[in-house]
Design a protein that fits this description.
Chain lengths: 231, 209
């Protein structure tokens, strides 16, 4: 009997390991819907403010010149921390089915615009908040024909939620490398026309500091609700 | 007793049928009347107010350029359309294109008309039952030496007769226009880039919906 038990011990360990690993995968799939970073390279590098006016961009195999950003002008740009009212009833709704963004203050529609959601990777559904606003940053990722390198991405509003960690780098942002709004084009982020992104950036919480603003403890960014299914 | 019941049911059913028929006939005559009135009004509108002069602005995605489309009065069955570009730096508009078209063939401006760098626009018009697409430079210059504009539906159907363009959605990059197609027998076809730098078409493995 003792021999029988001893011989079966490795099998028992294997079975237990398989069960535990399966359970782990099951739990992680349930709780973390998106484990993939929105921009595979820049996510690991940095999600911080950066302006690179001397660099060229790469998108869809084309080498392109990004619009220059004048840092001197940024200082004069929008609202500074403290100008906003303390209580905000702002929310952003993104309908992936119609590729449309609507921003509301209470029941009042502030703006509506066409967007481009994820084509290569899906834009996550759910309820999120903006945790950081950056006037510009660099985004890069992909491989082979899908490689992209985009300095000076303007008006970036990173969002996160209980099932989407901040480090994954999902955001709403301006777009200078395509004009195909109303159709999925991105790697998971919500692409906006630059003029629409600017308008939204200046309106959403957390309120602005000149270069970069991250929500402080106890401070909440504007709520984003993303729903529907991209065509 | 049962016979009486049957009689009542028969009367009730017949009344119902007559009532329904009456209502249907009344509704049908009413609809006919409505249709004829609408047709008359449409005809009057067309004859009395042909085409007003109109002007519309389309702003580029970055807000730096404006395309202004001016539509003139219809003359001898043709409507003149002029296209102007102005920018943040130079607010005085330059005329980049003009055309006189029959009312049914007038040029429209697609949603994503501006190239991302604002150097080009594309326009759409119908001709001989097909949608045609025209690309222009926003500085008014020729696309290439001796080539003022490029109409790429013609280029495409000549090169790929087995496909038909169903939609042109916008710009995939600075010089790549996104085209969706169907096969000639009506099945969903692939998406393509129209590469403006080489005037060629690139077939894509994924479709842009």
């Amino acid at each position: 009997m003792a021999k029988y038990r001893k011989n079966n011990f490795p099998y028992l360990i294997t079975v237990l390991s398989v069960v535990l690993i399966s359970l782990g995968i099951f739990i992680s799939k349930r709780n973390v819907s998106y484990s993939k970073c929105a921009n595979t390279l820049s996510c690991e590098e940095s999600l911080n403010f950066s302006i690179n006016n001397d660099e060229t961009a790469v998108f869809n195999g084309e080498i392109i010149k990004p619009p220059e950003i004048d840092l001197a002008q940024i200082i004069d740009e929008p609202k500074v921390l403290g100008e906003e009212t303390a209580v905000s009833d702002k929310r952003i709704e993104v309908d992936l089915t119609t590729q449309t963004l609507k921003a509301y203050e209470g029941e009042k529609l502030y703006m509506e615009s066409k967007i481009s959601s994820g084509k290569m990777f899906p834009t996550p559904n759910g309820e999120f908040t903006i945790w950081r606003k950056i006037r510009a940053t660099k985004m890069s990722g992909g491989t082979g024909n899908g490689y992209y390198y985009l300095p000076n991405v303007p008006y970036v509003m990173f969002f996160s939620g209980s099932k989407l960690s901040a480090g994954l780098g999902f955001s709403l942002h301006g777009t200078y490398w395509h004009d195909n709004f109303g159709h999925p084009m991105s790697h998971g982020c919500v692409n906006m026309k630059t003029r629409d992104a600017k308008k939204l950036f200046e309106w959403v919480d957390p309120p602005m500091t000149p270069e970069q603003k991250q929500s402080e403890p106890g401070e909440t960014g504007t709520k984003i609700i993303i729903y529907g299914k991209a065509p | 007793m049962e016979k009486h019941h049957n009689k009542y049911y028969l009367i009730l059913t017949l009344s119902g049928i007559f009532l329904t028929t009456g209502l249907v006939l009344m509704a049908a005559s009413g609809l006919k009347k409505d249709v004829s009135v609408t047709t008359d009004l449409a005809y009057d509108a067309k004859t009395e107010i042909p085409f007003k002069e109109e002007e519309a602005d389309i702003i580029s995605p970055d807000g730096k350029y404006t395309l202004t489309v001016k539509k003139g009065m219809e003359l001898n069955g043709l409507v003149p359309q002029s296209f102007y570009i102005s920018s943040e730096k130079d607010s005085s508009p330059i005329k980049i294109f003009e055309k006189n078209s029959k009312p049914e063939n007038m040029i429209s401006v697609p949603e994503n008309t501006f190239s991302p760098d604002n150097k080009y626009i594309f326009l759409k018009y119908d001709e001989q039952g097909k949608s045609r697409y025209l690309v222009l430079r926003t500085n008014g210059e020729e696309i290439r030496n001796g080539v003022p504009t490029v109409e790429f539906e013609g280029l495409f159907s000549e090169k790929y007769p087995e496909f038909v363009i169903t939609d042109v959605t916008g710009w995939g990059s600075y010089s790549l226009i996104v085209i969706n197609t169907d096969t000639i027998d009506g099945k969903t076809g692939p998406s393509w880039w129209f590469d403006l730098s080489s005037l060629t078409f690139i077939r894509l493995s994924s479709r842009f919906n």
